[in-house]
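Quick one, tokens below:
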């Protein structure tokens, strides 16, 4: 029987500036985003109706009901066709790396591949209504995101060796936006430099910010502990939080340094989710494959 497999990569906000707030309460952002070769995996098989089963190390506590973003994404493009979707959850839930949004975007890609059809007009608006991270999770390649997350500009960034770390404590995005002390901060520089490699990119990122980080550290102090632990690892050039947390990333000049740092941190913190990853373009891996 036909089976479509789709990879749903984690999105990492390398910088996240909160520049204003719309009348409806949503915040205006200016964010530099790259994607990790770490993510969830969806399998879709033709069926009478849409259904979802869950597995994987991070699936505990996640409901396979109609609210699951994988089902909500698939429903947007199902056009009456059913699918049995199996989601292997590897990304911690509510962790600032867009797991649910990545699953929804992957379910859309998988459902369209199963139906053998193109994305319908108006899908962009429907996706944005599901979540502000949905448009970027459709791209899976380095980008700058503005507006509330829907104004996207593809970027060329060098592959960036990183260590992703989550203290296994969920953080609710609305609570972090609510806790912001300032909602009107400077944007990223209008023109972005061309980066010859990870070193100049990390130097430049050190001048940028995640404006949600102070509020998130106040709401969940374990985030501060993760950042401190990352900063103490040999070779870590920059430690920052992604999205609304709690996942943080350390950046390294080389992949070997990131792998060594992962080993050291795993030995010290057995309860944390720790994933070395070279951040960049995951479009190839995220393309649906027929099994
Ligand atoms: C923080 C980021 O992860 C950065 O990429 C995203 O902006 C969050 O994206 P998301 O989780 O897909 O967000 P949504 O599910 O659309 O919104 C959750 C809640 O976060 C707040 N929210 C989200 C995005 C945004 N630009 N402004 C906001 O104020 C709103 O209170 C909203 O009710
Ligand atoms: N397939 C899914 N994976 C993860 N969370 C899901 C899923 N479906 C629904 N949710 C719900 O969505 C909420 C946000 O989870 P998600 O893992 O996407 O957060 P996040 O990583 O902080 O996302 P973002 O970085 O986009 O803010 C959680 O409350 C979770 O219960």
């Amino acid at each position: 029987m036909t089976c479509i497999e789709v990879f749903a990569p984690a999105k990492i906000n390398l910088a996240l500036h909160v520049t204003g707030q719309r009348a409806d309460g949503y915040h205006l952002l200016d964010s530099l985003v790259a994607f990790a070769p770490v993510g969830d995996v969806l399998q879709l098989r033709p069926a009478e109706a849409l259904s979802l089963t869950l597995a994987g190390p991070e699936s505990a506590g996640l409901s396979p009901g109609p609210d699951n973003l994988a089902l909500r994404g698939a429903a947007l493009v199902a056009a009456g066709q059913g699918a049995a979707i199996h989601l292997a959850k590897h990304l911690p839930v509510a962790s600032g790396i867009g797991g649910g949004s990545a699953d929804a975007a992957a379910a859309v890609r998988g459902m369209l591949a199963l139906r053998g059809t193109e994305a319908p007009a108006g899908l962009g608006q429907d996706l944005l209504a599901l979540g502000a991270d949905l448009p970027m999770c459709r791209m899976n390649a380095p980008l700058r995101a503005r507006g509330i997350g829907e104004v996207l500009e593809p970027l060329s960034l060098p592959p960036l060796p990183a260590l992703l770390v989550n203290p296994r404590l969920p953080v609710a995005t609305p609570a972090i936006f609510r806790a912001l002390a300032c909602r009107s901060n400077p944007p990223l520089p209008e023109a972005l430099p061309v980066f010859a490699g990870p070193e100049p990119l990390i130097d430049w990122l050190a001048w940028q910010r995640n404006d949600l980080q102070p509020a998130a550290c106040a709401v969940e102090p374990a985030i501060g502990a993760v950042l401190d632990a990352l900063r103490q690892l040999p070779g870590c050039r920059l430690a920052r939080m992604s999205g609304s947390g709690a996942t943080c990333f350390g950046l390294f000049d080389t992949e070997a340094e990131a792998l060594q740092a992962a080993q050291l941190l795993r030995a010290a913190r057995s309860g944390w989710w720790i994933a070395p990853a070279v951040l960049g373009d995951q479009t190839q891996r995220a393309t649906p494959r027929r099994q």
